Amino acid sequence: MSGQLHRDENMYRQLNDVANSGAGEGGFAFDEATMRSIVTSWLDLAVSYARSRRSARDMGTVTGPGLDLASEGQALAASESGTSYLEYLKHNETYCLEQAQLFQNALDDYLGVEHTNIIEINKSDSPEPRAGI
After folding, report:
1. CB within 8 Å of 42: residues ≥ 6 apart
2. Confidence tier at 43 by pLDDT (50, 70, 90)
3. Cβ–Cβ contacts within 10 Å for residue 50, how many?
């Protein structure tokens, strides 16, 4: 058996053990502290993507050093690449916020309280997601 195959099988067993622990076959069981920690982790990751996006915002507007065709072409290619990177960062930030919301909903259901809308809270008063809600 190759080392990679052994690691893959071992990882599968570990994930299967986690999936089946405490909640019956094929389920997950989290306590309140774990769910809060997961929400915070997703929000922290969203904050990281937001910061990266802000610090990379100029990557989408590269200007060439000269007015020649080569400079313009290189600047256009760099700008397109930068724009793609910024879109990637925004997509991942949004994904992280959505995952945080899903775990927050699960936590709210677990606690029997009304759902907290993480995405709207983050839109209303801060330029970046707030970790640790």
Report:
1. 96, 97, 99, 100, 103
2. very high
3. 21
CATH topology of domain 32-125: Helix Hairpins (1.10.287)
69-102 pLDDT per residue, tens: 888 999 999 999 999 999 999 999 999 999 999 9
47 phi-psi bin (left φ>0, alpha ψ -120 to 50, beta other)? alpha
The number of angstroms, rounded, from the C-alpha of 119 to the middle of its chain's C-alpha atoms is 13
Cβ burial of 75 (10 Å; 0-12, 13-18, 19+) is middle
Report the Cα 118 to chain-centroid distance in Å: 14
